Amino acid sequence: MNALILIVEDEAEIAEILDAYFTREGFRTVRAGDGQTALDLHLRLKPDLVILDVKLPKLDGYEVLAAIRRRDDTPVLMATALAEDIDKLQALRIGADDYVVKPFNPLEVVARTRAILRRTRAHVGATVIRAGKIEIDLTAHAAIVISEDGVRRKLDLTLTEFRLLAHMSRASNRAFTRAELVDACLPEGEAMERTVDSHISNVRRKLESATATGYLEGVRGVGYRLVPLA
User: Fold this and answer.
1) pLDDT band for position 22 (50/70/90)?
2) Residue numbers of the domain that contains 137
């Protein structure tokens, strides 16, 4: 079945143009005119990709993006009139996959969408992430440390701890800011940057107890990174 694109845009004319171009190119589409409706449709329909404006009624695009990232890894292409570097960096920091500035060519938006889907679909079916001794099974929601002698030790992680470890394992060696980890992994009720320190400390302790010492590093002035040691 062709990919389902959720178009989140409060300007009806722009939404209709995007809808027409995506439909012509063989995509299925659904539209939302405000942030809350977008999140409701995302949860109910599970689209393959979201085209997301920033200036929206009820919830703005950054809030919608952060909420999506707390749920899953649905690709998100920001399409907005905000052209400043700080706006782009904000979107990418929260977890946007790409960013296009209005006025845009609808064909470019379709082309960027195809490129994002090619990248993300290349990982479909790859439900196991490996980083050194660590093996994370996303389907089974299990994290395992494999020792040098082949012994497999399952880590007893909370939901938030598992999300943090899985998220960092997807881009090992990358330094994540606390704000990034909050947006991607922590439930709304825990959304305080310093809360990350406590969760990371627990994950590090559990890794070390399973012989995976030195995997989680603090990065001064930034946050944390996962180093896939041999």
Assistant:
1) very high
2) 128-226
